[in-house]
């Protein structure tokens, strides 16, 4: 058997390098960060996330594995503007992408209450794709942030006692084009009997955000129009004299904000008669920050 000469080996190596450059030159890169909304008095929501799926315009699914060695991510560590990188500059074929979703492991997720009790979380089927619209050309790069709305995603299991079900509700924002809304809630309103209902100060209180101006607020109900698109917990500040909330990343647009003190009773699988105590409308522009006070 004839051995290749040094010149032939050099030629083959050059061809391989050229082919690799050609192939990789047709790729783009994408990074995906994860953030979450709060979940009231819940202490931890530990989710076993395997990776991220991207849907292209032809309907093909592209699986990207999660970076890092941790088995789970406590998503409640990443609220109020914090985030964690799930995918860092992963190579992706150039083209147009229209959907993004998290990919979860079948087991290993848990919810931990403020008292320390731990409950298994069962993932209900494959998550739906959240809408995106990104066009990636050769050597382009993109960063997307997926926000898991935990209040709208988690609920007590109806089939297994002592378990929670996760049917993920996600929204995706381009952090270079999104805006934020921060604000306060009138202290007298927070202390009123209509809000406290005999409970600890701030318990069950949250602000819901709806797409559009002057929307009549309602609870979140799966697969139903008019539901809120995002939620934010009310933070009781250290002196218990002021109350604040934050939507760290929202797409530009018009929103209605509504205060409820019954968010802890909002089950996303059923229609709940929860009440709202204050509303306001706001216009949010790209890379803008708005402040809105909610009062009676």
From TrEMBL:
Highest taxon above the source species: Bacteria
One Pfam family in the UniProt entry: DUF4382
Every DUF4382 domain range: 28-168
Descriptive protein name: DUF4382 domain-containing protein
High-level lineage: Bacteria, Pseudomonadati, Pseudomonadota, Gammaproteobacteria, Nevskiales
